[in-house]
Structure formats: structure tokens, C-alpha cells
Amino acid sequence: MTTPIVQEQVSLQAYNTLAVPVKTRWFIEANTHQDIVFALAFVREQQCPLLVLGGGSNVVLVDDIAGLTLHVNTRGVSIENETDTTVLLSVAAGENWHDTVMYCVEQSWCGVENLALIPGSVGAAPIQNIGAYGVELTQCFSYLEAIEISTGKVQRFGRDACQFAYRDSVFKQQAKDQYVITRVVLALSKQPQWHIHYPALQERLAAIEASELSSAVIAQAVIDIRRSKLPDPVDIPNAGSFFKNPIVSAECYRDIKRQYPHIIAYAQDTQPPTYKLAAGWLLDQAGWKGTDVKGVAMHKDQALVLTNPHRLSGADLLAFVAQVKADIHQKYTLELEVEPRIYRA
Ligand code: FAD
Ligand code: NAP
Q1: Could you say which residues of the chain have pLDDT below 50?
Q2: Which end of the chain is more exposed for a tag (fewer CB within 10 A), N or C?
């Protein structure tokens, strides 16, 4: 058995899509399951902190990492079970999420097409129950396997155990920093089950006959919409939507709507009733779209996307974020919550 190289003092700038220039004391690139096992033994032996990274598209790295950064790059896709109508697809955590979506689309399997072009790895997808265009991972998820960091034990998490919620899961809550996800099993359908009610998608597909719909057509529509709206992190460093859409009570929504009658909000299927406010709208109305403060800016076309064109530090980004949050609080009496995970020393 070969062991992976433990590199020292490695820059993580190329490993996070905000291109923040931090260093990590140790770095292991895990290409196999055994590499992950080795890395976790290393962490236990050194008693050092661990940062698990996939594509680095949902993190804000503020300080240098004092311990080990484990870059999960494991590969492998296999059919675990297949019937006339369904497929269970086992995918290694290091596989690219979008490539996996396109693989499913090529096989004419349905379930993940609305989630095309989301950056990052398969292993990170359950962490925030990735979602877009009216679909969340939970809808096409069977189970995952993960290694418990403290013991090295492999554990299986079904959908209930993952406690999926809106951009949330047990891995952001009680099980935070306790597991490395090693593979995810997707539950796909061979029969059409389209989700095309999301307004932007519906509009894009309006000219397409129902008989012409396929997972490939839907994935392409999603790709086209995303390319027209979202900056590519390769060109302009960003982490996608930087703030979560606030979920507020009916009373709070009523108060804000009285002051801002045109606010964009969506009634949630909850008891008591709650409303999801479009954070992009709040930021746009408050004048943040395209606003640049000391080199950090909200994108000119997408008020929700914080960009770091000059590849400044995490502290610079957070100084900007503090200004945005204070302004939004002052204007709407709302606390904006940052979506990417912030890593401080
Ligand atoms: P990373 O940033 O590497 O990690 C994110 C978190 O997951 C970290 O806390 C990390 O420690 C943990 N983690 C990563 N891999 C593992 C693992 N194997 N085991 C345990 N923990 C792990 N998100 C959406 O939900 N919907 C979108 O539509 C969407 N669009 C985006 C568009 C752009 C342009 C960008 C830049 C981001 C977007 N995102 C979106 C956010 C992001 O792509 C997703 O959250 C994605 O799942 C992150 O994957 P990653 O591999 O880059 O995770
Ligand atoms: P959009 O279409 O301009 O819509 C703005 C917001 O309104 C979205 O955040 C969306 O919530 C909400 N929304 C729109 N129609 C809705 C409906 N019918 N029911 C409930 N909520 C609705 O959004 P966008 O910024 O271009 O993004 C498009 C999709 O890609 C969204 O689903 C978004 O979440 C996803 N995306 C996510 C990220 C990320 O980093 N997390 C980055 C880019 C895009 P939801 O966000 O809950 O869908």
C-alpha cells in the first residue's frame, strides 16, 4: 500500500474559488479511500485541526490553517442497483458534481438535471443539501457513506439521518466536522419526472413541446440560464450566493411588505407560516449590486454574489460583509446569514 505525500506550507489559493491566499501547515491530496484513512490517522496522531476540501466553492478561508487540509479527489462511479425504472448510482466523494450530472443526463436518467453546473464535489453536495431551480439533493438521494474522524469507523447515513433542510444538513449541525463523506448514492429515475415549475426555467423552456423534454434539454436550459447570470469563479473569484435567503415569520413579512410593497418573497410550506425573502432583491434595493468597497464587490448582475477580483484576504472580505450586513439590518431590521462556511483560526 502506498501512502500519500504529506506536503508542508501549501498555498490554498488555487483550492478555493474566492482565491483567498491562505496557507495550510500540512496538505494531503486523497486519490483513494486509503489516502483518506491515512490522512485521518495523521490528524489523530498529530492532534491537529482538519480542513476537508472538495472544490473549495463554499468556503471563506480567513486565516492560515494550523493543521491538515485534506483535498478529497477520489474517483469512481458505479451502478449499485438497477431496475426497469430506477438506478442507484454510487459516486465517489471526489467526483465533480457537474460532471456527474452530465453523466446521468447522457444515460437519460432523471433527477439531477436541475442541479447542473453547481460547482464542487459530490462529497460536499449533502453538506448543504445543494439546491437550485426548484430541486434539492434530498430529492435524488439514497444514502451516503462517511468515515468518523475520531474513530476511523465507516458509517452509513440514509436520508432521515442526514436531516436535510433548506441549504442545511446534520453535517452543518450536530455532526459538523465529525465525518469525511467518502461516497454518495444517488437515486435516479429512468422515467420522466421533470421539475420545471421554477419561473426562470419555465420561461426558458416555454418554446419546447412537452414531447421534446428530456433531462438533457432541462440540464442545458439550466446551464444556459446560469451562464447568462452567474460569474465563473475562474474569471472572477466568488463563492456563488454569499447570503442565504432569510426565512421570516408572517408578522415580520407583513411589516417589511408594508414598507417595501414590491419585495420578492415566497410562502414556505411550514406551520406556523413563514416566508422566504429573496436576499438578492434586498441587496439590490439597498444599492449593493455592483458596489465595490476597497476591491471587494457584489457582482454587477447578481447582487447576491460577492466577488473577490483582486484576490484579497478573507479578513478583507469579512470587513466588506460586515458593512453589507449592517446596512441590511439598518434598512430592513433583518440579519443576513452568510451561506459559505467561514474558517477562522
Ligand atoms: P467545499 O467548498 O470544498 O466545502 C464546503 C464544505 O463542505 C466545507 O465545510 C467542507 O469541509 C465540507 N466538505 C467538502 N467535502 C467534504 C467531504 N467529502 N466530507 C465532509 N465534508 C466535506 N450551492 C447550491 O446549493 N446551489 C447552487 O446553485 C450553487 N451555485 C453555485 C454557483 C457558484 C458560481 C459557486 C461558486 C457556488 C455555488 N454553490 C451552490 C455553492 C457550492 O458550489 C456548493 O455548496 C457545493 O456543494 C460545494 O462543493 P465543494 O466541493 O466546492 O465544497
Ligand atoms: P432567481 O431565479 O433570480 O430567484 C431569486 C430567489 O428567489 C432565489 O434565491 C430562489 O430561492 C427564489 N425563488 C425563485 N422562484 C421561486 C419559487 N417559485 N419558489 C420558491 N423560491 C423561488 O435566483 P438566482 O439567483 O438566479 O438562482 C437560481 C437558482 O440557482 C436558485 O435556486 C438558487 O438557489 C440557485 N443558486 C444558488 C447559488 C448558491 O451559491 N447557493 C448560486 C447560484 C444559484 P432558492 O434559492 O431557494 O431557489
Answers
A1: none
A2: N
- Rounded Cα distance between 232 and 237, Å, is 7
- How does the average pLDDT of the chain come out, rounded? 97
- Distance from chain centroid for Cα 101: 15
Helix/strand/coil (H, E, C) string of 270-305? CCCCEEEECHHHHHHHCCCCCCEECCEEECCCCCCE
Active-site positions read: 167, 241, 339
pTM of the model: 0.97
Any idea which ligand is nearest the CA of 200?
A: 2
In 3D space, the residue among 126, 119, 111 whose CA is nearest the CA of residue 176 turns out to be 126
Indicate the SS3 state at residue 225: helix
Residue nearest to atom 37 of ligand 1 (CA): 240
Q: What is d(CA 109, CA 79) in angstroms, rounded to the nearest whole number? A: 12
Q: Ligand 1 atom 25: the closest Cα is on which residue?
A: 130
Helix (H) or strand (E) segment spanning residue 50: strand 50-53
- What are 265-295's pLDDT values in tens digits? 999 988 999 999 999 999 999 999 999 999 9
Contacts of 16 (CB under 8 A, 6+ apart): 53, 56, 57, 59, 61, 239
Residues with Cβ < 8 Å from 171, sequence gap 6 or more?
A: 126, 127, 162, 179, 181
